[in-house]
Write a structure and sequence with these properties.
38% of the residues lie in helices and 21% in strands. It is built from 15 helices and 24 strands. The strands form 7 sheets. Strands 14-17-18-13-12-20-21 form a 7-stranded mixed sheet, with helices on both faces. Strands 9-8-7-10-11-23 form a 6-stranded mixed sheet, sandwiched between helices. A hairpin with a 7-residue loop joins strand 5 and strand 6. The radius of gyration is 24 Å and the shape is globular. The termini are far apart. Bound molecules: succinic acid (SIN). Succinic acid binds next to loops.
């Protein structure tokens, strides 16, 4: 699946040799981890493993077992065996485990962040921020665990009583992406634990080491064996088929591409399994004439260049009203040109490598296509592959102006550090352009007119709207999309509902008091 530079150096000796070629000594920072099945850290039954590489250097930083179907089944067995015990614990006990887990993750922040940077590439400060973000979901859902309430509904017949119970769905599978290797896991198994469910987590094969560290923290915080299990594999298709084919797994939560999400919807039909899907996005970012320009450009940069542009909520279409268009493009270009690109563990770096060469190819394809169709390159606009960049997958932070709807960047997720700007004249046009997408995850806009603020927020066809900010992520808010960005919400008070079934009980003949 991965191509180019990452694959060429898939062994530690190769990585060292490659580092020596360019006069540096490779530092192997990661480690070899295992699957977590029923409280035991085990090898895959085939004993095969796969390497995990650093996208900044091509070095091998660790390895993971390459699970087969029997290992996935063993993890489901473990989750199923742990279910009754976990769901019958008092909610306050489950809450304590969740809160302690958040504490242990925070205590290990530096270690987890270092491994995340080594395998994922994001700058250390961002990685540390993500560890905090991951912990915050466990803390939040520790609180929610105690608030899973039922209802007593007034019955039509006074002889009867009607109860509404909210009960754990059962065994859950969480399939998580490489862009947020810690937080996307805790955002899934955290509410699952709160609800009384047990989980099997399958992290992306590019970033499994962070996942293992997070689960070690959960285990050390006192989560009973089997409550959360970890399987890693190079074959996502095999894992998905095994999970979807097992009747004990009642719910799957997935974060990833819309393409894969659609395939999971098809697979879910077989046993009518519940799904939560946080899929692709193509966020519009509107800047009106009356915006605070400095705040707007900083918000845009925070949204667009977070994780080198590799988030589902990154700005992907930037629409600026005519009166401030030139000023915004100038300011944006100046700020982006100053961004330091390099390995994430180097102080001062704002943009790390992309996850692999395919990511670089896609960013470059969008830039070249836009230029060919008439966009103007303001800054950046190319791969970085000389000198210290030679062994990694780096792309220059880029600003394009004059982007039009026929360009790839206007319809496809770039997932890279490329900001494409277009101009608009009226509020009506801005809303039309913003809503002209198959995606509906997140939209942003800046204005100082408070009537417009409410008007625009209401008209944007998105699950999340950032008004006068480029950062919208938190544990206490319902995160998720509409249209082809998926369904279900993660975080917030409703996040735990995704892991609960609603049952109504009619008790007849009780009599009247
Ligand atoms: C994502 O990119 O999928 C998640 C981003 C976030 O939670 O902020």
């Amino acid at each position: 699946m991965q191509s180019g530079k990452r694959n060429r150096r898939s062994d530690p000796a190769g990585a060292r040799a490659a580092a020596e070629e360019v006069g540096q000594m490779a530092v192997i920072t990661g480690k070899d981890e295992r699957l977590l099945v029923g409280g035991e850290w085990v090898e895959a039954s085939s004993e095969s493993r796969f390497d995990v590489t650093n996208p900044a250097t091509g070095e091998v930083v660790g390895s993971m077992p390459d699970a087969g179907p029997e290992d996935v089944e063993a993890a489901i067995d473990a989750a199923a065996a742990a279910l009754d015990g976990w769901k019958s614990l008092p909610a306050i006990e489950r809450a304590r485990v969740l809160r302690r887990s958040a504490d242990v993750i925070r205590e290990r922040k530096d270690e987890i962040a270092a491994v995340m940077t080594a395998e994922q590439g994001k700058p250390l400060a961002e990685a540390a921020g993500e560890v905090e973000y991951a912990a915050s979901f466990l803390e939040w859902f520790g609180g929610e665990a105690e608030r899973v309430y039922g209802q007593v509904v007034p019955a039509v017949n006074p002889q009867n009583r009607v109860l509404v119970l909210r009960q754990p769905v059962g065994v859950v599978a969480a399939i998580t992406p490489w862009n947020f290797p810690a937080a996307m896991m805790t955002r899934k198994f955290g509410p699952a634990m709160a609800a009384g469910c047990t989980s099997v987590v399958k992290p992306a094969s590019a970033t499994p080491l962070t996942a293992a560290l997070v689960l070690r923290a959960i285990e050390d915080a006192g989560a009973p064996p089997g409550v959360v299990n970890l399987v890693t594999s190079r074959s996502s298709g095999m894992v998905a088929e095994t999970i979807f084919g097992d009747r004990r797994v009642r719910k799957i939560s997935f974060t990833g591409s819309t393409e894969v999400g659609k395939e999971l919807i098809r697979l879910s039909a077989g046993q009518v399994k519940r799904l939560s899907l946080e899929l692709g996005g193509h966020a519009p970012y509107l800047i009106f004439d009356d915006a605070d320009l400095e705040e707007a450009v900083d918000g845009l940069i925070a949204s667009k260049f977070r994780n080198a542009g590799q988030t589902c909520v990154c700005a992907n279409r930037i629409y600026v009203q005519s009166g401030v268009h030139d000023a915004v493009v100038r300011l944006l270009g100046e700020k982006v040109a100053r961004m330091v690109v390099g390995p994430g563990d180097r102080p001062g770096v704002a943009i790390g490598p992309l996850i692999d060469e395919r990511g670089v190819d896609k960013a470059d394809q969008h830039v070249q296509d836009a230029i060919r169709r008439g966009a103007h390159l303001v800054t950046g606009g190319g791969r970085l592959d000389d000198g210290e960049y030679a062994r990694g997958s780096f792309y220059a932070p880029t600003v394009l102006d004059g982007v039009t709807p026929d360009m790839l960047i206007s319809t496809e997720e770039t997932f890279g550090p490329v900001a494409g700007v277009s101009r608009f004249e009226t509020e009506e046009e801005a809303i039309r352009l913003a809503n002209d997408s198959v995606y509906g995850l997140c939209a942003y806009f800046h204005t100082r007119d408070y009537a417009r603020l409410l008007r625009v927020a209401e008209q944007l066809e998105y699950g999340i709207v950032g008004a006068n900010t480029g950062i919208i992520s938190a544990a206490n808010v319902p995160f998720g999309g509409v249209k082809e960005s998926g369904y279900g919400r993660e975080g917030g008070a409703v996040g735990v509902d995704e892991y609960l079934d609603v049952k109504y009980v009619l008790v007849a003949g009780v009599g009247t008091p």
